[in-house]
């Protein structure tokens, strides 16, 4: 532990050394690092009634991680890893929530939390160099450091359909799914076929009287390869955890497999088919995109080969030619890769129908259901699987004000910026977990990387009696340019995807991720050190390492 010098550097006594917002992976680990390891006085907030973050709210039917079970915990505690248990090779939402509860129990983290509490505003007091944090309970506290783990995918996106308030049936958004929803024997409509929508559709199709899927964009999806994992398999994984985590943290996407170094365009069509078929049978979306060939995300010819393989699979699986046609994508295979446990097969059921809203757009929601340009679909339940205002959505919903009173909304008017995915100019001592322009990977290893950097930085500041840290404008600009340059070298930037904000009407399509991989990101953190930062900006521009 370190001795806190929080009352030095010409600012008044604060209520807390640090305020942490969020009780998911990032928030919980931050409380542990700052309070338990550094010995700081920490207050944490979350608007849920308990820990879990994204996995507290996303209780929708069929909720499942697309990362294999062995790489979806945090790695910092070896005993916790050894105690880990799971049924299948992919974790369900209840299993993930149970794990996060175990983390909270093991490190006594709830003691620092105030639950059922929303942070409504954060204001940086330049006179005293601290943050003033206000909640919906009317409380304002002060803290030297502000750490926000607001969630990459947690700000819900509900389309504003005409007549939505007139619907007489039940309405649910998958990200705010209440307990004890009974869909048995009901006529259900679902809008959205992204990762969440796919999972819900597969789960509820056998239970409902009829399911009408309102598809906005056809999806490329591959099998997830869900299977029960034996005790022997789990024991072997645990015996090799050190190497597994070493590989993951030095890899690109950190999904626990070696990314391919072989370009698809360098092999024959027959070899392409063989490799794709093998990956299809093993399962996993990231494995199919990054474990098969090295150029699927960068070379149009390789991308088309992968896309065409999936298109052929859809034609083979779906029995009705018209449904298969609607389900078959024609564009780039360049979004966050999806995987599923029987998505296309679901459309062979007699009680499932597909409506392409690109061909017959939704006109309005009526008291009875949904009306498109060619028909009205009567429903008892309407589900919105319409995703999230990703990355920056939760930040712009809070009144965040930094130096000179600049708001986060103003700073991000042309798209969210972020240095190293963790800090912003004008916002001293504010650390964002999974902020804009952080790594596009399996999330727990990225979260762990960032929280440890934040903790190390706070430790350095306290030990060296430093008041503030913030990025230099040129450093932030250079990082965004780096992210944009890497993005432009991929096909991801050529498609419409939530990873660039394209799912939100009126939102500027902009780079929001560092696509260079976790290994390169970790190297960048190590090599850059504090070169891109200003310490004690008010006092001087010294102390730059």
What summary fits the major beta sheet? 8 strands, mixed
Characterize the overall form.
Answer: globular
- State the distance separating the first and last CA atoms: 23 Å
CATH architecture of the largest domain: 3-Layer(bba) Sandwich
CATH topology of the largest domain: FAD/NAD(P)-binding domain
Question: Briefly, what CATH class of the largest domain?
Answer: Alpha Beta
CATH superfamily of the largest domain: FAD/NAD(P)-binding domain
Proportion of helical residues: 25-40%
Number of domains: 2
Enzyme class: oxidoreductase
Family: Belongs to the FAD-binding monooxygenase family.
GO molecular function, one term: oxidoreductase activity
Keywords: FAD, Flavoprotein, NADP, Oxidoreductase
Describe this structure in words.
By secondary structure, the protein is α/β, with parallel strands linked by helices. The protein has two domains: 16-155 and 390-535, FAD/NAD(P)-binding domain, CATH 3.50.50.60; 217-356, no CATH class. Helix content is 31%, strand content 18%. The strands form seven sheets. Strands 1, 2, 5, 6, 7, 8, 19 and 20 form an eight-stranded mixed beta sheet that branches. The chain has a five-stranded parallel beta sheet with strand order 9-18-10-11-14. The chain has a three-stranded antiparallel beta sheet with strand order 15-16-17, with no helix packed on it. Strand 6 (119-125) and strand 7 form a beta hairpin. The longest helix is centred in the C-terminal third of the chain and has 21 residues, at 443-463. The radius of gyration is 24 Å and the shape is globular. The chain starts with 15 loop residues before the first strand and ends in a 10-residue tail after the last strand.
């Amino acid at each position: 532990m370190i001795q806190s010098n929080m009352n030095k550097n010409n600012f008044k006594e604060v209520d807390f050394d640090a305020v942490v917002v969020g009780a998911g992976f990032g928030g919980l680990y931050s409380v542990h690092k700052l309070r338990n390891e550094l010995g700081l006085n920490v207050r944490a907030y979350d608007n849920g009634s308990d820990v879990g973050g994204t996995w507290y709210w996303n209780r929708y039917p069929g909720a499942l991680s697309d990362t294999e079970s062995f790489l979806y915990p945090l790695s910092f505690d070896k005993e916790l890893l050894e105690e880990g248990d799971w049924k299948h090779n992919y974790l369900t939402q209840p299993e993930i929530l149970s794990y996060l509860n175990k983390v909270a129990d093991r490190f006594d983290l709830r003691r620092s939390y105030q639950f059922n509490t929303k942070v409504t505003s954060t204001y940086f007091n330049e006179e005293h160099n601290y943050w003033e944090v206000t909640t919906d309970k009317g409380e304002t506290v002060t803290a030297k450091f502000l750490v926000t783990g607001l969630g990459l995918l947690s700000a819900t996106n509900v389309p504003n359909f005409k007549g939505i308030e007139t619907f007489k049936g039940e309405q649910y958004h998958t990200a705010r799914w209440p307990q004890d929803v009974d869909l048995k024997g009901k006529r259900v409509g679902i809008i959205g076929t992204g990762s969440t929508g796919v999972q819900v559709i597969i789960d509820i199709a056998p239970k409902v009287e009829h399911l009408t899927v309102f598809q906005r964009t056809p999806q490329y999806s591959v099998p997830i390869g869900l299977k029960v994992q034996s005790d022997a398999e789990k024991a072997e994984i645990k015996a090799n955890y050190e190497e597994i985590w070493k590989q993951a943290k030095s890899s690109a996407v950190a999904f626990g497999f070696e990314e391919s170094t072989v370009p698809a365009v360098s092999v024959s069509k027959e070899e392409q088919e063989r490799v794709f078929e093998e990956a299809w049978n093993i399962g996993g979306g990231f494995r199919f995109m990054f474990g098969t060939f090295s150029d699927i995300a960068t070379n149009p010819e390789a991308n088309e080969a992968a896309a065409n393989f999936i298109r052929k699979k859809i034609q083979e699986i779906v029995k009705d030619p018209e449904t298969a046609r609607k389900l078959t994508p024609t564009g780039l295979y360049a979004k966050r890769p999806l995987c599923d446990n029987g998505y296309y097969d679901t459309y062979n059921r007699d009680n499932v129908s597909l409506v392409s809203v690109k061909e017959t757009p939704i006109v309005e929601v009526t008291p009875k259901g949904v009306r498109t340009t060619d028909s009205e679909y009567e429903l008892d339940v309407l589900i919105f699987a319409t995703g999230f205002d990703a990355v920056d959505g939760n930040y712009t919903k809070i009144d965040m004000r930094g130096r000179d009173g600049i708001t986060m909304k103003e700073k991000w008017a042309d798209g969210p910026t972020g240095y190293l995915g963790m800090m912003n100019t004008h916002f001293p001592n504010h650390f964002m977990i999974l902020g804009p322009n952080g790594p596009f990977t399996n999330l727990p290893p990225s979260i762990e990387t960032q929280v440890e950097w934040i903790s190390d930085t706070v430790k350095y500041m306290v030990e060296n009696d430093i008041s503030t840290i913030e990025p230099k404008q040129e450093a932030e600009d250079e990082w965004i340019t780096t992210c944009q340059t890497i993005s432009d070298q991929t096909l991801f930037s050529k498609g419409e995807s939530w990873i660039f904000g394209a799912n939100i009407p009126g939102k500027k399509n902009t780079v929001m991720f560092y696509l260079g991989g976790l290994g390169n990101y970790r190297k960048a953190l190590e090599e850059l050190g504090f070169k891109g930062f200003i310490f004690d900006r008010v006092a001087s521009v010294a102390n730059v390492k």
